[in-house]
Amino acid sequence: MKTRTYSVSEARKHWAEILDAVEHGEEVAITKYGSKVASITPPGKKKQNASPPPRFLYAEGWRMQMTEDFDAVPKGFEDYV
């Protein structure tokens, strides 16, 4: 499915049309001076190019958890502690 693209000024004029498209499962991109500044996606649609959080940090619901070695001094930095 192709992503619809609107400039900021077009998005203002066609907001209802954009929301209808998103409601029907489409993704819509908003551009400013030719560069993509926002994406509007349906709820629950996974972002395909999202990178995972760093190894030492991950989210579980609203609670953040860190690994046990989070505050360990990295190798080579012992002299700075």
Please characterize this protein's 3D structure.
- It contains two helices and five strands; from the N terminus they run βααββββ.
- It is α+β, with helices and mostly antiparallel strands and about 80 residues long.
- It has a three-stranded mixed beta sheet with strand order 1-2-3.
- The N and C termini lie far apart (about 55 Å).
Helix share, percent: 10-25%
Low-confidence stretches: none
- Can you list the strand order of the major beta sheet? 1-2-3
- Determine the CATH superfamily of the domain at 1-43: YefM-like domain
CATH fold topology of the domain at 1-43: YefM-like fold
Please give the structural blueprint.
Layout: E1 4-7, H1 8-13, H2 15-23, E2 28-32, E3 35-40, E4 57-60, E5 63-66
Parallel strand pairs: 1-2
Antiparallel strand pairs: 2-3, 4-5
Question: Which features would summarize this protein structure in a list?
Answer:
28% strand, two-stranded antiparallel ribbon, 5 strands, 81 residues, alpha+beta, YefM-like fold
